[in-house]
Amino acid sequence: MTLFRTLTPAFLLACALLTGQAGLAQAQNGPLRIEITEGVIEPLPFAVPDFIAENGAAGEYAANIARVIASDLAGTGLFREIPASAHISRVTSFDAPVAYADWKAINAQALITGAVSASGDRIVVKFRLFDVYSGQPLGEGLQFAGTTQSWRRMAHKVADAAYSRITGEGGYFDSRVVFVAESGPKNQRAKRLAVMDYDGANVQYLTDSASLVLAPRFSPTGDRILFTSYQSGFPRIYVMDVASVQARGLDEQPGTMTFAPRFAPDGRTVVFSLEQGGNTDIYTLDSQTGNRQQLTNSPAIETAPSFSPDGSQIVFESDRSGTQQIYVMPAGGGEPRRISGGAGRYGTPVWSPRGDLIAFTKQNEGRFHIGVMRTDGSEERLLTASFLDEGPTWAPNGRVIMFTRESAGAGGQPALYSVDISGRNLRQVSTNGPASDPAWSPLLP
C-alpha cells in the first residue's frame, strides 16, 4: 500500500484527552476541543456519509470503507456517529463544497468525506476531514492506494488519521493482535496461535492445536512473534516469522524450561524466564548470537518481564517478598526495587509504549482486576473487576488495554476485552470462539 498527500489548507484541531473524566466544549469563535471537566465524557458527534464510488467497480468498497471508519471511531467511546437517516446534505461529489449549515443543523461537529476508485485488483481511497463549526478543513486531504484485498487497512488508516487530528494522539486502528484461539471443554482445551485485525477481522491461524501454546508477543516491527510451546513436552520459547509462518526454538538448554518471552525495543534481545533445578530467574538472550545473560538470582519465582520503551529498565513479577508483587530493575540486571504496594497480589506487568504507565493484573479479595500505575508505583488505578481478568496488552498509542476475561463455572470461557486507560468503554472484542493471551502489534507499516 502506498500513501501520498493532496494539498488542501491545513487546520489542526486542538484537543486535550487525559486519563480523567472529560466533557466536550466549543470555544467561542475557536476550534472544537475536548476539555477536562468533572462531568462524564460526552462523545463527539461526527458524520461519515458513504464514500463516493468514482467508478462502477468501487461501489461496494465505498460503502464498506465508510462503515469501518465509523465503527473504528465510535468504538473508542470518544465519538458518536450521526446516522445517515439524520443527514440533511447528500455528498454527491468529493470536490463539492461542504454545506456546513446542514451538518451544523444536525449537530455534527466533525465530518469525514471520501471517494473510492477501483480497477482490477487496485483501489484508491481519498478522504477529507472537516471541523463543521469552524467551517474549515481539518488538516490535509490524504489518499491511499493498494490492493482491493487491503481495503479494510485503508479504512483503518483513514480512521487513524481522523482520530489523531481530533484527539492529538496517535491512532491504533491499523494494527493486529496475536492471541491464543481455544476450543474444547474447559478441562481439556486445545490451543493454537492466531492473528487478527485489532477489531477481530481477517483471522489467520499460525499453528495447529497439536501442541499447547501460550503468551505470544510481537516484535517491535511486527514481523516476528515470540511464544511458549509445549511441543517438546516442556515449555520452551519459539520465534515465528509472521510472513512465512515458520518457527524455530530459542535457547534450547537440556534440563531447563523457558517461558514468558518478550522482545526488547531493539528487536534483537529477548527477555524471558528460565526454570532450572526448581528455581526460576530472568534472563536475556541475543537472538542472533545466542549469548545468554542471567539478570536475577533469587530463590523466588521471577517471571513476566517487560522492557521499558527506551530499553533501560525491566519490570517483572516476583514473590521474593512472600507474595506476588511487581519490581523494576536496570535492563542489565541489578538490585530490583518493588513498586507495587497495595493489598493483594500483582502480576503480568507490561510497560506502556508511552513509557508513563505500567499495566498489571491484580488479585484481591477473590476478584481479579486490570490496573495501571505510574512507573514508580504511584497513582494505582483499577480499571476492571471480574471473576478472572488477566494478561493486559497495550494498544500502540498507549490509550487502550486489551486483556483476557474468563467467565465463572464449569462452562466458563475466555474472551478478549478492551478498556480505555481511564476505565471507561469496556468492550468485548469479536473473535470466532474462546480466546486468550492477546498481544497488540505496533502500527502496521
TrEMBL record:
Membrane-crossing residue ranges in chain numbering: none
One GO CC term, this protein: periplasmic space
Locations listed in the record: Periplasm
GO biological process, one term: cell division
Similarity annotation: Belongs to the TolB family.
Subunit structure: The Tol-Pal system is composed of five core proteins: the inner membrane proteins TolA, TolQ and TolR, the periplasmic protein TolB and the outer membrane protein Pal. They form a network linking the inner and outer membranes and the peptidoglycan layer.
Protein name per UniProt: Tol-Pal system protein TolB
Naturally occurring in which organism (per UniProt): Fertoeibacter niger
